[in-house]
Amino acid sequence: MRKIYLFDTTLRDGEQSPGVNLNTQEKVEIALQLEKLGIDRIEAGFPAASPGDLAGVNAVARAVKNATIIGLARSREKDIDAVWEAVKDAQDPCLHVFIATSPIHRKHKLRMEKHQVLEAAEAAIKYAKKYFSKIEFSAEDAGRTELDFLCEVTELAIRTGATVVNIPDTVGYMTPLEYGNIFKTLKENVPGIEKIQLSAHCHDDLGLATANALAAIANGADQIEGTINGIGERAGNTSLEEVAMALETRKELFQAKTTITYGEIYRTSRLVSKLTGMVVPGNKAIVGANAFAHESGIHQDGMLKEKTTYEIMSPEMIGVKESKLVLGKHSGRHAFREKLSDLGYELSEEQVNTAFGKFKELADKKKDVSDEDLMALIEEKLITTPEVFVLDTIQVAYGNQSVPSATIRLHTIEGGVLEEAAIGNGSVDAIYKAIDKATKEEVELDDYSIKSVSHGKDALGEVHVVLKQGDFSVQGRGISTDILEASAKAYLDAVNRLIDKRKTGPSRRDNLSLI
Ligand SMILES: CC(=O)SCCNC(=O)CCNC(=O)[C@H](O)C(C)(C)COP(=O)(O)OP(=O)(O)OC[C@H]1O[C@@H](n2cnc3c(N)ncnc32)[C@H](O)[C@@H]1OP(=O)(O)O
Ligand SMILES: CC(C)C(=O)C(=O)O
Ligand SMILES: [Mg+2]
Question: Which of 225, 255, 453, 481 allows an S-S link to 376, with CB 3.0 to 4.6 Å?
Fold first, then answer.
């Protein structure tokens, strides 16, 4: 298998992401993690940009022992001097020097003719040779450069002493077929091309950065430039973790591989996200929070039977602990049962079915059903008190200038429907008075408490009540995303227990096997 070199520019092009500014210590921390990851070449910054960046690149050059350390320069002597100053202490220093070659950049930005661009590139590479044995030359905006001129520039760079020639798609304009064709053309037409390495540097303006990098590899590129998490100027750069995992996962296709330590990918992604403040989108390939998470029942069932049904690579390989089966409204019984078993519940098929019905009702109201939600739901639902009264609907009218009122509708065990309305000191009081009227039970509310059993705005509220009737005292619990509904459920639960207690004596909390 052919080795593909990874050139990481998180600390240079990545730092060009608007809002990102890494200090020296942060650059060193990321660089050391990149070294652990096994990155071959680290572009640590643009030393001519500021004294701070020069110091940052220099600190990286001193700290990292097992990767080439690179600084970027325009085709100007003072930029090249600054790079040498910054990287001369590295074990393996390298210069990256560039000039734009496309007609748009030549005309509007550089205001140079073709021959002036060639002269500037030649002069820069010649000057750099007084310091560097390794020089990468980039033809900025190569993607929009006339192919014959790009061949001419590449030939000149090789002749003058560049050891790597980079073909940047600076503005992310290329499609894979076009970009691949540039590499093919250079390979076939430029004299001396076999003496150097060809490199690809892509941007993601059209979402094609990784696809274009892979097309370059398929057409002979030796090196891929990119960043961790794909951060970088505008829409960002090629994500190196995507390239590495695409080559690994489809090795039969590419016959090429990187030599990185896959198990460090996730850790590196987290560190870069933390220090740059660039949040990784949940659906980001390889390192996004959802990259190995499955929510729908059919997928979860497949995953439980055989992971390869829905995963083309394993999360453990990149350092993620395990795949996640997320319970939500699309989940099915297989995943639900598995989750209950993980939480330590051993339930009969019938109990699973009852709980599953309740879980689906809850999932319709909540985005994510957490472990705490599930535990609350199981503990509430599987304690089998005969339900003499079942809550159907509640209507509450509340205004800070009016008396709260509530209308409730209950079903009875015999199939009847009871509907009552009442006013109260507050909404909960109105609900409880309406329930009293409907059930005709004379009870006293001895205690009422409410707590949140999960997190976030759509958290479940759990209400706990104690009702008294003569010598009897019973507890009731109700759970809902709405606290008024939870209050009504708790009250009715207690009334049902009271009726049951009157009939059967001591309380029964049976049919629930919690382990
Ligand atoms: C595609 C890329 O990612 S390229 C890298 C982008 N990174 C950066 O720009 C790093 C941060 N940059 C900086 O700090 C500053 O731009 C500096 C210090 C490099 C230069 O600052 P200034 O001297 O004030 O110039 P300014 O940035 O305004 O303009 C760029 C100048 O460089 C010229 N230039 C641009 N690219 C090159 C090049 N590769 N070689 C030679 N000259 C170049 C421009 O034509 C312009 O020249 P002009 O002043 O004669 O018109
Ligand atoms: C400096 C070069 C390589 C660059 O970042 C680009 O062209 O995108
Ligand atoms: Mg770039």
Answer: 453
